[in-house]
Amino acid sequence: MTKFEPKNILPSLPEEPGVYRYFDAFDTIIYIGKAKNLKNRVSSYFTNIQGHNTKTRKLVQQICRLEFTIVHSEFDALLLENTLIKQFQPKYNILLRDDKTYPFICLTKEPFPRLITSRRIDHTIGTFFGPFANPKAMNGLLEMIHQLYPLRTCALALKPANIEQGKFKVCLEYHIGNCKGPCEGLQDENAYLIYIEQVTHILKGNYQKPKAYFQERMHESSGRLAFEEAQEWKEKWELLENFQAKSTVVNPSIHDVDVFTMVSDEQMAYINFMKVINGTILQSQTYEVKKKLDEDESDLLTMLIWEKRDQFHSEAKEILTNIPMSLEFRGVKNIIPVMGDKKKLLDMSLKNVLYFRKEKADRKAAEESGGDRKMRILLTLKNDLHLKHLPKRIECFDNSNLQGTNPVSAMVCFIQAQAAKKEYRLFTPRTVVGPDDFATMHEVITRRYTRLLEEEAELPDLIIVDGGKGQLSAACDALKAIGLYGQIPIIGIAKRLEEIYFPEDSLPLYIDKKSESLKLIQQLRDEAHRFGITAHRNKRSKNFLVSQLEELEGIGKLTAQKLMKHFGTIRLMYDAPVEELEKVLGKAKTPNFRKQLKIWLDEKA
């Protein structure tokens, strides 16, 4: 093949919109691009080559032939580029299609239509709604619809002739009230189609008409004094109202909007797409795309927006983005909101994409560490608790006392999911009188982190308190007082059901009992309890011995405490050299003390 000579071809290129295709020495398409001005865009590859990145220079070196197609507009160029990339899949282009097939809900075209799920679209079967990037959300929607409407779930051919001939018998679904028995002609098809009309509205995200329908039936029933029937319609209305309330994230007046946010680095682009109708997110997906060349962010986002709108069959007339699109779609408005409910939507989408990128980076770090089990556990904990950073250093607190006596608080520290015993600390409450767990937790948290701030020492990535909402609230109040609240994630764990509590959230989190992250939290809690109980017993034992020593002649409380602090046990006091005892007691008291100790030990023997 003749060597490609740009200087002989570039001057003759048209200055019009179009799509260009580069071929290599094997006459294989290696890159397809679009341009508002073909001459300027293609020429840019062959001028100032040293200014290109490595991938682009490598592409240019392989170009042996050029083809182009002139179109009417840059928008038409986008459509043609999208089609050709899917057809030829050049190695230097971003492949726009996901390798996943998402499920759809299909409303079948048959007498007494059914709702089924499918990953393959066949419009001869019925009308398809979706796709749903989250199958769990799709199943939740289906479950709610079947609670509202008695739709059949069987696959019987309910043609009028078959029903008239009595070919079918009602099944269990009829007897438990989930179906009205159309297979035996017990339900009129027109009445059934009214349900289907309501279902269609729900699948399109329009909840107002079904809610109005339930309200009309409720008022009509109560007007006939059929109060039980009215109550049933009211419960259906409430079910749909609650479902919509849980789904609505912004103002319901935001009717039909697509939201796209993108962040990128040298290697990858990360994109979040949300389909919003009446303030409800009907579809949401976050994904990554590997960059092949030094693509312009606006061009890349525009290409991906077109792909996702095509894949999700979106006809929204408004697109919210965090960076401007490189061209306008026909009849569609691109907005970068700076305030209001639409800005909240955009921020939510951007939060999703940033979290996704961070999660990918953490996973990559875990893989690079050789699949380290500790790293995997920390990643799981980070995701389960929705933390911003990996909890490499965790500190856990527990209070121990016996009917208010000898109270002690224990703090244990785990670094990289492993006990760091040199970092363990014990606290004896100074300001709390009696068995007050909340006040004790407040004091201990205050003392611990005030000291760390003063010493400019390392703060933990996560704080755990052993206890429910009360202990957690006391710990949070302490953090607020020293200005650390919100800077360090903190949770409480209640023993009975292993509930995880977050600040300012009345509903607990239940982590899977088999989860490695819950096991790590339990390990921290149990270790803090063990450490605290051991210290509490030692303290109680020492206090008992101090009180025993006070009974000896010439020994007061302060002297007894000095002896216990110096020797630790009664036996060590007795076995100690006279000179050492004299250092603590003085020469005058020592002989009598040793005699009393011998008598006391003989009685105990």
CATH class of the largest domain: Alpha Beta
Please identify the structural class as seen in this structure.
Answer: alpha+beta
Oligomer: single chain
What is the CA–CA distance across the termini? 106 Å
Average per-residue pLDDT, rounded, comes to: 81
Strand content: 15-25%
Domain unit count: 5
Note the total helix count: 20
Global shape: flat
- Give the strand tally: 18
CATH level 3 topology of the largest domain: Nucleotidyltransferase, domain 5
Biggest β-sheet, characterized?
Answer: 7 strands, mixed
What would CATH call the homologous superfamily of the largest domain? UvrC, RNAse H endonuclease domain
Uncertain ranges: none
Proportion of helical residues = 40-55%
How does CATH name the architecture of the largest domain? Answer: 2-Layer Sandwich
Radius of gyration: 36 Å
Overview of this protein structure:
By secondary structure, this protein is an alpha+beta fold. The chain folds into five domains: 83 residues, GIY-YIG endonuclease; 144 residues, no CATH class; 106 residues, Nucleotidyltransferase, domain 5 (2-Layer Sandwich); 156 residues, UvrC, RNAse H endonuclease domain (Nucleotidyltransferase, domain 5), CATH 3.30.420.340; 54 residues, DNA polymerase, domain 1. 45% of the residues lie in helices and 18% in strands. The protein is built from 20 helices and 18 strands. Strands 12, 13, 14, 15, 16, 17 and 18 form a seven-stranded mixed beta sheet that branches. α9 runs antiparallel to α10 and α12 packs antiparallel against α13. The longest helix has 35 residues. The chain is flat, with a radius of gyration of 36 Å. The model has no long low-confidence stretch (mean pLDDT 81). It comes from Aquirufa avitistagni. Its main location: cytoplasm. Interacts with UvrB in an incision complex. Pfam families: GIY-YIG, UvrC_RNaseH, UvrC_RNaseH_dom. This is UvrABC system protein C.
